[in-house]
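Two proteins were folded this term; both appear here.
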Amino acid sequence: MSNNKTTHLTDKFLAQLHQGAKPSTQEYARELRHKTTEAEQKLWALLRNRQLKGRKFRRQHAIANYVVDFYCNESKLAIELDGSFHMDTEAREYDKSRTALLNEIGITVLRFWNEEVVNDSSKVLKRISDHLL
């Protein structure tokens, strides 16, 4: 396969993978990878390297205008971890509209509280596993 065709196919795959995310959103996702919470670190240790049902997860992944905490493209599954910030009414509304947009483009969103991941990760993994194709 020629180099131009390979580049074209790679670009096409990345466009689908990121659902048209702007470069600024992708840069923000890169920054977030360096600022992880305890819950994100714990869940990432359990998901990375295809440890759950052989599925590949990405962390702090840009999709459309958003960055999701974890994403499995094979199963079209986004996982969000929420802390106390997400209890605020405004934050809940933002999360609701964000989930609706992701659902519209065929992505299922699972939400967990940080405390759930830290204190009962096996329950969290079971729920995630149930949604993997």
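Next, the second protein.
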Amino acid sequence: MKNGDMPIKPIFNDAGICTSPIHLNSNDPIGLTKREYFAAMAMQGILANQRLQMDKTAEGVAICAINHADALLSALDNE
């Protein structure tokens, strides 16, 4: 699984398997991925700064936030 697809706060069972608190037999991570979380944080910053929003539609802001999240994940992978 790519770093950006990992959950921000994984939950592990006693066997060390990342699991859901609802479906404890599942091996699939739950919750927001790192990419989703980083994009949300970038979007929050963009929306808080009027100068960063200029000439951007809501879709444009969302794409910009995703691009920033992807850049952060890429930089973390290269570190």
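The two ends are 18 Å apart (CA to CA). The chain is about 50% helix and 0% strand. These notes refer to the second protein only.
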